[in-house]
Amino acid sequence: MFYLKAKLANGKVNKTDITDENVFTRCPDCGRELPIDLVEVFSDGEGDLFSTSIVCSTCTKKRAEKSSHTVGIKITIDGIALLSDTLCQASYGEQVYDLFNEYEIEAIQELVPEQYESFADALKALATEGGSL
Ligand SMILES: [Zn+2]
């Protein structure tokens, strides 16, 4: 058992056992006070009282949304056009054409934004799988 030892203003020393219920931290994003389960923090073997920061569940979710949103923005029609041009020049023209058929389009510009990600993934798959369709 560990305990906290703090000297009070009246000179008395206050000792408080550290339990799984009296350790708190603040979320670095929103400042909300969070109860900490030290066992959980240290269980991955990387826990460290000084540098570990715990993000609350709301901010964890926000961070995840933010990063996936950023990924979504990265896929642009220009990027897809460039990727398909590159693949065509790298002799994947036939496979790219098949993909156009699959999406029932004649030009990249006909893709709707909801298709960008899956189309880009399909193009990337062509390149990484060596077009073994
Ligand atoms: Zn937070």
Short description:
The chain is of the alpha+beta class. The protein has helices spanning 38-43, 57-74, 77-102, 113-128, and strands at residues 3-7, 13-17, 24-26, 33-35.
Please tell me about this protein's structure.
The structure is a single chain. By secondary structure, the protein is of the alpha+beta class. The chain folds into 2 domains: 3-71, no CATH class; 75-128, no CATH class. The protein has helices at residues 38-43, 57-74, 77-102, 113-128; strands spanning 3-7, 13-17, 24-26, 33-35. The strands form 2 sheets. A two-stranded antiparallel ribbon has the order 1-2. Strands 3-4 form a two-stranded antiparallel sheet. The chain is rod-shaped and about 80 Å long. Bound molecules: zinc ion. The site of zinc ion has 8 residues, from helix 2.
Keywords:
single chain, 133 residues, alpha+beta, two-stranded antiparallel sheet, 4 helices, rod-shaped
What is the secondary structure topology, with strand pairs?
Blueprint lengths: L2 E5 L5 E5 L6 E3 L6 E3 L2 H6 L13 H18 L2 H26 L10 H16 L5
Antiparallel strand pairs: 1-2, 3-4
